[in-house]
Amino acid sequence: MDAAFTAEQDEMRRTLREILGKRCGPDEVKAAVRTAAGYDRELWQQLAQVLGLPGTAVAEEYGGVGCTPTDLALACEEAGRVLLPSPLLATAVLVTPLVTALGTAAQRAALLPGLADGSLTAALAVPGTALATALALTGENTEGDWAGGGRAGGVQARRTEDGWRLYGEAAQVLDGHRAGLLLVAAHTGGFARSRTALFLVRARDTDGDVPGLVRTRQTALDETRAQGRVQLRDVPAEPLGEEDADALAALAATGRTAAAALAAEAVGAAGQALARTVEYVGRREQFGRAVGSFQAVKHRLADLYVQVQAARSAAYYAAWDPEQGPLALAQALQALRGSAGEAIQLHGGIGFTWEHDAHLYFKRAAADELLFGPVHRLRAHAAERAGLFGPGPAGVAGGAAVAASTGATATGVHRERVVL
């Protein structure tokens, strides 16, 4: 296995960093998230037309670039460095793989070209706060009750003479307030034949949103991840793929690849937060010397550097082997939380002001854990999938308990003393 990046990947990273460096300073990011769309439309089109960013993982026959998950992860890392507000996560990371995996030939031909060139944005609508469960990141999604389970709440799908109709609500949908296409997870079949399926909703027509669809933008902790409340009141929908398609397995597979991309994005944000902190303590003076020259500060930054580098290694490995995505995501979210927290602390008095840039990274860390974690549940579920808590040779369960109690990471580094 050759772990080095190709010349094309290095060039893509350099070009993307150059474009984002010019267009995504802290002030530009804050201005973009406060627009109606929640992102800079002009920049999104530039990224789509110049780099083909939303079509990175789309096959060339559908107008995409046809690259590997590693290329998408590298793009997400650069987007994470500047906390880029864009439809990239919702469209390219969550919805596009599901359309590719489950869609019929006609659906792929109709949807993938628009998703690849950025002209069509999409959002995955999951009821309640169950996104991490639906993607099988923090627990198995096979029960399907997170989509409604036949009870009140969630989203229900009913077949009528005119086709399928959806009823219900999804309260936290990434980019759900403006996306042109909604991919809705809904419960269908009643009690006797209960199952969870995915449905396509063409959210807009010539007069705006389709009848029965009510969407409002939510106030989110992390402004750079716009969220919307989606209410469905007798909305026409089309099943994604064949009626017997295994939506739960496809969601779990998408969750693993999404976790790898999210890990890379979090690593990019963590590295940038650390770099800004190192730059600041190098020029900020106290008692006649740079704050960064104090030994206690050096030790804190050195610990952060090791943590971020370990998370980067885990994220790159997960891009090559998506099965490791959830563990890499846990490592990366922990590194981001630590880097953002220390950035606020080491920036001193200005770091504690709500308007300072350090809070953008801190909010991203907190919001990502709420959406896709928390860290301890990501690790616990990964351990369960690996069989660490199941029957096996003597000492396996005990070893898992020691690993959990000592904070063992994806790279096998223990940060506390192991007592045998």
UniProtKB/TrEMBL annotation:
<keyword id="KW-0274">FAD</keyword>
<dbReference type="Pfam" id="PF00441">
    <property type="entry name" value="Acyl-CoA_dh_1"/>
</dbReference>
<dbReference type="InterPro" id="IPR037069">
    <property type="entry name" value="AcylCoA_DH/ox_N_sf"/>
</dbReference>
<dbReference type="InterPro" id="IPR046373">
    <property type="entry name" value="Acyl-CoA_Oxase/DH_mid-dom_sf"/>
</dbReference>
<comment type="similarity">
    <text>Belongs to the acyl-CoA dehydrogenase family.</text>
</comment>
<protein>
    <submittedName>
        <fullName>Acyl-CoA/acyl-ACP dehydrogenase</fullName>
    </submittedName>
</protein>
<dbReference type="InterPro" id="IPR009100">
    <property type="entry name" value="AcylCoA_DH/oxidase_NM_dom_sf"/>
</dbReference>
<keyword id="KW-0285">Flavoprotein</keyword>
<keyword id="KW-0560">Oxidoreductase</keyword>
<dbReference type="InterPro" id="IPR036250">
    <property type="entry name" value="AcylCo_DH-like_C"/>
</dbReference>
<feature type="domain" description="Acyl-CoA dehydrogenase/oxidase N-terminal">
    <location>
        <begin position="6"/>
        <end position="118"/>
    </location>
</feature>
<dbReference type="InterPro" id="IPR013786">
    <property type="entry name" value="AcylCoA_DH/ox_N"/>
</dbReference>
<feature type="domain" description="Acyl-CoA dehydrogenase/oxidase C-terminal">
    <location>
        <begin position="260"/>
        <end position="385"/>
    </location>
</feature>
<dbReference type="Pfam" id="PF02771">
    <property type="entry name" value="Acyl-CoA_dh_N"/>
</dbReference>
<dbReference type="InterPro" id="IPR009075">
    <property type="entry name" value="AcylCo_DH/oxidase_C"/>
</dbReference>
